Amino acid sequence: MTRLKYILYLISFLGVQVASFTAAWSQSPTLDTLEGFYERANSSNERVVRGIPLLDEYYYSGYLTHGVNFGKSLLKLIDSTQQHQEHAQIHNRLGTIYTTMGSQERLALFHLTKALSISQSIPWTFGIATACNNLGNIYRDWGYFTKAHEYYTASLTNYESINDSVSMAYVYKNLGILCEDRNWEEKSLRYHFTAYDIRRKIGNDREILSSLVNIGTAYNKFKKFKESLPYLRQADSLANLLQSEMQTEVKLELGDSYSGIRDTANAMLEYDKALQLALRYKKSRAIANILVQKTEVALGEGNYNMVTQLLATLLHHLDTARYANARINYYRLSYQLNSIQGNELRALQAFRKMTLLQDSLENLSNEEELLIRQNTFDLVQKDTLIQIEKEKHQFQRQLFYSILAFLSVLMAGAAYMIYQKIKTSRKLQEKQDLILERNLELKEKNEELATLLDNLRESEIVIQHQNQEIKKYNQQLIGQVNDRTTEIIEKSTQIAQFAYLVSHNMRGPVARIMGLRNILLLDNSKQEVNQMLTMLNTSIAELDEILHDISNIFDSTAGIREKIERIETETLVKDVLETLEREIKFSQAEVNYTITNTTFFYSSLHYITNILVQLILNAIKFRDETKTTKIDFTITSTGLEHIFTITDNGLGVDLVKHGNDLFTPYKRFHTHRTGRGFNLFLTKYRVEILGGTIRFESEVDTFTRVTVAIPRSKLAHV
User: Fold this and answer.
1) Which of 661, 662, 634 is nearest to 647 (CA)?
2) Quick one: angle between helices 569-579 and 605-621, nearest 10?
3) Listed residue (533, 629, 620) closest to 579, CA to CA
4) What pTM was estimated for this model as a whole?
5) Which of 664, 651, 645, 660 is nearest to 709 (CA)?
6) CA-to-CA dists, residue 32 to 26, 27, 70, 566, angstroms
7) Residue 666 has pLDDT above 90, yes or no
């Protein structure tokens, strides 16, 4: 297994070397294009304008030294009296380059402060926001979290004022990193995912890559290594595709993830790749971090020789790069290695250096002060260690004699105490066994009581629920009974009224039939007999019509529940007009129909057809023959009901005089036209069975409008 690991390390190292060699001799097409575009500039101002995108590309491609030299040459060309924004942009980019290089924080702070000052003097909101964001990065790296947060907040406010979502994503990313350093997991991930969502909507691959790395780093920071792997693998693929200088950070974080899930082989492979990329791009801070991570993995594996070599390499690197956090990690790892190997003095020295440097980071105001304090602490440490060693040997001798005397007295007393302890412990054990047995019995009874109590509570809840259901059902039944009672009373009243009218109208025909029968029993001539038979036939026909009306009433009551079906509105209208085709043609009436807000509904097709046929037939029957008959027929639907309206320009009805008798059976308002005065009553009866209403509007010799409304709920119920 060990041989396999080293073979994998060797393959990874060779692969990274080949990739680094190839990349060193190649340059992206974007850089070639921008450099050619810059060389074709005709004036200094034009060179500055064309040079800024090239400076940005040097930064994004990882050519940091090229970027520094090129940025300095642009500052010499710039006209500071006119090109204010370009001036601020160059200082800002130089600040970010120095920040990325590491160990150049003073120069980074100088350029970013200059960029902020120029942007504020113009004023230029975007420049102010960008400079504040980058200054926040520097103060965050130095450990001044409050100051960093102030700059980030100012940056976000300015970006929001110009609605620059691309740049707002940068600030959210940096706030996420700041919260990582403060161990605020929820806030950190929320900021990182906010930046990621913005960048995915915009579709910029470089920025998406940055957010994927930030999310993976945050998960690693909070020890959620499995959650980080999908994001870091996706970032690795995208970084390789873009040939981005962020490959270093991706490989480093992948190594941390694999290390976190104990996959040491893959962790070391990723660290080796990251180290080669960091060396290629001259990322001093990244080199230090990678060496620290590799050392921790080797220490965890117990490979102390490798740990010693890595620590020596790290120390050599830190002599050229001032990176306080990496130096703290160096002392920490030295302390751990020496403690494991039993070198207590060296371990103590490393521990004191680590704690002194940590304390100094909390109180220093800038990096220079940090270095001075560190050197002072190193000198104090040497003197202190010598004094500690002297006091240590003297203390050890005194302690040895004191312990020896104390142990002699202690052993004598301990022998007696042990005897008493054994004696009393037996008695206590017997009592404890008895108490334990009683406790077990009590526990069982308590559990039984608790179970019984839970059952009683559940039963009580069920009973309460059932009582509520019964109460609710009783209220529903009461409401239904009241509604049914009201309906029965209304129907009974209508039947009683109709029975009275029918009996009244049947008396005449029946009386005439009885009188004619008595006359026929007498001796009469043939002519008289024929005349009386004709009269008898008329009375019988009149009686038959009354019985037919009674039959229609009973049919209306029984037929509604026979068949409820889907009625196509257009088909219904055509069927009604086809049924009345002969009457319409004979009366030469103009019938127009309109359908709105409905294509179908559910009801009794037979009832709806009879209602509409009868209302249109009435309009034709009681037309004004002195003018052209016009009938307007409309069907519409609202959220609650279907409405049928039939309007004509016929004879009309005097509602002041006959309004109360409109729907009374056998009431006629135009005696010069044939009819029995029963159709309006029957139509209203059918409408009410459907749960609807009928409204009658009229003006003599002007118009008549009948409106029928059938509720949807009633139709659904039927």
Assistant:
1) 634
2) 50
3) 620
4) 0.42
5) 645
6) 10, 7, 15, 75
7) no
